[in-house]
Write a structure and sequence with these properties.
233 residues, alpha+beta, L,D-transpeptidase catalytic domain-like
């Protein structure tokens, strides 16, 4: 037997072994089980990465469950930030029977199931976090009112994947974060709500004036820089 065929046979054997191991891991739930068991007597926290579309459930700082989910489309992004579950309900229709609403101030966002399981694993929703129906049913049992849910993704922290230009009427996590920063600096007096309205515009104009920026209604990259918002390393 030539050296070439010996190498070829060896590679085929290795490939067959790898396929068998992958198949056994797929068929055996224990092989994919989390490292730490869930304790129903303790609370959980939920972390969702909307770039990889992965959800991790933590208990005592350890991962007890991992799920593949669907985050919001670029045109309708999920609310980046740290929130709490403020309502739970059994919903019919396209929500897989379960709804866990979050206290996002600028809209109705939550975690729910879907009629479209093929939408899981990529950014396909209108901003909510979609799960497979069997997964959301399991998570619903673990979740209580007040459960902390952190949604993140992208190099700009709570600004997500980009520093977009903001103008009156815009809503979202980035508006919310700018409001919080201006509030901390004493410029924005109202409670942050993630909505660009007239009161927010006044605070922007005052900050622009005090920092020698052009006075206008639009938040550009220069405004972000003046506010101390940069790409995270």
């Amino acid at each position: 037997m030539s050296k070439f065929y010996k190498i070829l046979i060896t590679l085929i054997v290795i490939l067959i072994i790898e396929i068998i191991l992958i198949y056994r891991g797929y068929k055996n739930p224990a092989a994919n089980a989390p490292a730490h068991a869930y304790n129903p007597k303790k609370s959980i926290t939920i972390v969702i990465d909307v770039v990889s579309n992965q959800m991790s459930v933590f208990q005592d700082g350890k991962v007890v469950k991992n799920y593949t989910v669907a985050g919001g489309k670029p045109s309708t992004p999920s609310p980046i930030g740290t929130w709490k579950v403020v309502n739970k309900d059994n919903w019919d229709g396209g929500f897989g029977g379960y709804w866990m609403g979050l206290n996002v101030p600028w809209g109705k966002y939550g975690i729910h199931g879907t009629l479209y399981p093929n939408s899981i694993g990529w950014n396909s929703s209108k901003g909510c976090i979609r799960m497979r129906n069997s997964d959301v049913a399991e998570l619903y049992k673990m979740t209580t009112h007040g459960t902390v849910v952190t949604i993140w993704g992208g190099p700009f922290g709570n600004f997500g994947s980009s520093l977009r230009t903001l103008k009156p009427g815009d809503i979202g996590s980035d508006v919310y974060e700018i409001q919080k920063l201006l509030n901390e600096k004493g410029y924005y007096k109202a409670n942050p709500d993630g909505i660009y309205r007239d009161g927010f515009k006044y605070a922007i104009h005052k900050y622009q004036k005090d920092n020698n920026l052009p006075i206008n209604d639009v938040i550009t990259y220069k405004f972000y820089q003046a506010l101390g918002v940069y790409l995270m390393e």
